Amino acid sequence: MARSIDPKCRKCRRAGEKLFLKGDRCFTPKCAIVKRAYAPGMHGKGLKRGLSEYGSQLAAKQKIKRMYGILERQFKHHFDEVKGKKGITGDLFLTRLEMRLDNVVYRMGLAGSRSQARQLVSHGLIYVNGRKVTIPSYEVKIGRTVSVNIHKKGKNYFKNLSQILKNKKDFPGWLEFNKEKLEAEIKDFPDRSEIGVNVDAQVIVEYYSR
Question: What's this model's pTM, rounded to 2 decimal places?
Answer without folding.
Answer: 0.80
